[in-house]
């Protein structure tokens, strides 16, 4: 595809995906007319689209293309059989993927800084963007454009487009489109990058861990010799993936010998503090108003990349101390009668484990109740059944919902929530399976007591449990 000239009508099929909704806003900011469609819309991206005045056509329908667009962007969740896609193909309406259009329209001629990895991408990219935004107060050249897979609370948005050179991106390893099965991040051609973790994930498109590692090795291979890679040193898969990098590689982590080393880590309800060393020398005392060792490591990665690109340490310290997280990442949704309700985007057993560990440390001495909806393509499959039990054991009590759209997963591959609950009970953790959000609210709300911390873990709408549970707690409180 060549760069678009003039203002166009661009239609996005699957516009409510995080990246697609962000792209819609970016294209609108460029002066294009943007329309879009989806099967269903839910916050936070539906709120962001509404704020931008971009209507979502629901559901998918051929008539949504009656006004023929100049270009259609096909989301990666869209497959053959979608009525709009079929019309696009029948009528040969020009089409592209989100990742390809993003590169052609926004990345050419800029400095591309990409955050990749199985976990931590969204939070780390948000931290990096806020560091750059803070640095821009002192030097305008650091004012960033960015695309993040969530709403960064410091900005109230998931994207920003400016005329400056730095463009910060969350690099997704998921496939690009029905016609391009390679990872989206292979379109972003990073000048410098972060690699957080590499684990088996996305069991619907990757056959095994080796396939995942191959994707990340190809990503690393795109970084030029003049570039830099800041890579986690606590994961053997990351070590394998960066082994043949042509660029400078700076490892970060907790171990002696890490180029960016975290020491003296402490955490409480006020957040996390640590000392950061650079190549064995003191670099900074850092604080972050978020719980969790994993978040300190995410912040360290962002600090390392920014420092290497010339951002002053004072800006890094100021930014991390004022970082406000990302929507749906350890987000406190309500405090009702001493009960704290927290939402977190849960897509993988490792992410669940780190979230629950962070909450245990931050809310020490309080009962932690985990509510899990197996919704991601990984969690809906039984490949991680044992790992899921291990992760959920950190909680004091567990409630598991039915598998989201279970009929779309072959029975021999499908997660059995009752098997997970039984595994927890055998190891001493009370656990039960309840069909859906309504059933969970009805059964659980009367059992909750002042001091409890409730972690709702899902990467989707989960039947609006995030508002239903606090509302029922308010009702019971009278």
In short, what is this structure?
This protein is an alpha/beta fold and 478 residues long. The chain is built from 14 helices and 23 strands. The chain has three domains: 9-98, Rossmann fold (3-Layer(aba) Sandwich); 109-321, Mur-like, catalytic domain (UDP-N-acetylmuramoyl-L-alanine:D-glutamate ligase, 3-Layer(aba) Sandwich); 331-477, Mur ligase, C-terminal domain (Protein-Tyrosine Phosphatase, Chain A, Alpha-Beta Complex), CATH 3.90.190.
Description:
With 478 residues, the protein is of the alpha/beta class. It folds into 3 domains: 9-98, Rossmann fold (3-Layer(aba) Sandwich); 109-321, UDP-N-acetylmuramoyl-L-alanine:D-glutamate ligase, CATH 3.40.1190.10; 331-477, Mur ligase, C-terminal domain (Protein-Tyrosine Phosphatase, Chain A). It has helices at residues 18-29, 45-51, 83-91, 98-107, 121-135, 209-220, 236-242, 293-308, 313-321, 349-362, 385-392, 417-426, 437-444, 465-477, and strands at 9-13, 33-37, 56-57, 71-74, 95-97, 111-116, 145-152, 157-160, 166-171, 175-177, 180-183, 192-195, 228-232, 248-253, 260-268, 271-278, 281-288, 331-336, 339-344, 368-372, 397-401, 431-434, 453-457. The strands form 4 sheets. It has a 10-stranded mixed beta sheet with strand order 8-7-9-6-12-13-14-15-16-17, sandwiched between helices. It has a 6-stranded mixed beta sheet with strand order 18-19-23-20-21-22, sandwiched between helices. Helix 1 (18-29) links the parallel strand 1 (9-13) and strand 2. Helix 1 runs parallel beside helix 2, helix 11 (385-392) crosses helix 12 (417-426) and helix 13 (437-444) packs parallel to helix 14. The longest helix is centred in the middle third of the chain and has 16 residues, at 293-308. The radius of gyration is 22 Å and the shape is globular. The mean pLDDT is 93.
